[in-house]
Automatic annotation (TrEMBL):
Key words of the record: Methyltransferase, Transferase
Provenance organism: Lentzea alba
Protein name (database record): Class I SAM-dependent methyltransferase
GO terms, biological process: methylation
GO MF terms, alphabetically ordered: methyltransferase activity
Family annotation (InterPro entries): SAM-dependent_MTases_sf (IPR029063)
Length: 210
């Protein structure tokens, strides 16, 4: 099975996000796998007028929130039905577009530069970083930032014959790969889970030199 088909199957089982969060907001950004938990988009700074790219944008809920804050947003996802769902829910939000494509192909073909690239349990977790990180770095504007999150679980999920492979690394391992790909100001943190028996969330950041 191809990754595109595997992700399309995954998409058919995905539940839509709630209409309202615990704070009563209709749009929000959540870096973690737990609802109403962890930091929000404020870690990205002022987003007004910024060009934001999300890699593996799913149903577009996180990205739509950034568009409501004045960012110019593009979401890329490999599964065609994700674009359809995102357009249905968020199609009327200005400065927000969704594209169905493999992120590596998108980054290779795009001539646009981005101020912010995010990926939330998204394509940075499911794509060979030796391929993807240099492509992201190339499309980041000077001083632009990459911020992404995934489960804090360094396991041996490395079977290359699976249609969907997770690239699980520690913060230190990501930092080394980001430096090699030309990123600066690299850092990582583990967002603690809401209950101690659950996995935390690894949040990784890197920037393009100014
Ligand atoms: C676990 S889901 C997370 C979706 C979304 N970021 C969220 O937080 O709800 C991973 C998403 O990444 C997309 N994806 C995985 N590999 C991709 C690739 N190579 N190119 C584009 N999208 C990809 C999948 O289709 C899926 O929608």
């Amino acid at each position: 099975m191809t990754p595109a088909l595997a992700w399309e199957r995954f998409a058919t089982k995905a539940k839509p996000r709630r209409a309202v969060n615990a704070a009563g907001a209709t749009t929000w950004l959540n870096w973690t796998q737990y609802p109403d938990h962890g930091p929000d988009e404020s870690i990205l700074g002022d987003l007004r007028g910024k060009r934001v790219l999300e890699l593996g944008s799913g149903s577009g809920c996180n990205l739509a929130h950034l568009a409501t804050l004045g960012a110019r947003c593009t979401g890329v996802d490999i599964a065609p039905s994700r674009e359809v769902a995102a357009e249905q829910r968020w199609g009327r939000v200005p400065e927000l577009e969704f594209v169905t494509q493999d992120v590596a192909d998108f980054l290779q073909e795009s001539a646009d530069d981005f101020d912010v690239v995010i990926s939330i349990f998204g394509a940075t977790w499911f794509t060979d970083p030796a391929v993807l990180l240099p492509l992201i770095r190339k499309r980041l504007a000077p001083g632009g930032v990459l911020v992404f999150s995934h489960n804090d679980e360094v396991d041996d999920d490395a079977q290359s014959d699976r249609a969907i492979r997770k690239w699980n690394f520690s913060g230190q391992q990501w930092a080394e790969m980001l430096f090699i790909a030309g990123f600066v100001s690299v850092s990582s943190e583990i967002i603690p889970p809401p209950k101690p028996e659950l996995p935390g969330t690894l949040l990784v950041r890197g920037a393009a030199p100014r």
